[in-house]
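Sequence in, structure out.
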Amino acid sequence: MVITEVRIKLCEENNERLLAFCSVTFDNAFVVRDLKIIEGTKGIFVAMPSRKLTDRCGRCGGKNHLRSRFCNQCGTRLDDQRAMRAIDGRAKLHADIAHPIHSGAREMIQGAVVDAYAKEKERAKLPGYVCTYDEFDYDDEVPASYSGMVTEMGKTVKAHGPHTGPKGTHFHSTDAPAESIKKADGFADGIA
């Protein structure tokens, strides 16, 4: 696995800890977006993209974020201590969407991202600086069709016969809906 590109989007100076967002491309084939570069108590670190954890209301079954104090569906007050806790006692409120499996991979990603962040900060000082983070040029080399992509991979596409036409409705004659619904007041006229 080789990191082939790192794109950085610097944050405004008024953010306390969040320094930048970044995307990392692996082997010119796979992109992970929305990594965060954060100033921690021990220095800069890279936070992987994550989502907020949710649970369900005991009364109505509605889905709520773990920080929610009341159910979004029924308004029932939710337990403030329902989140799982880490060893240090902090509530676990987010789950990584993508993350390295071992420390070697984490160190490789973090090193590449921190280096790219330092270079981007220097580039930002130059006149005419333009951020490249939002340029979505990954589709420039994508083949226009599935068969083109398969051919590019050195494979062949097997042709198959045409698909059969639709087989009719799923209703049996006794289950078919009524032809029309008419009421004396004209309500629902024209519904078939």
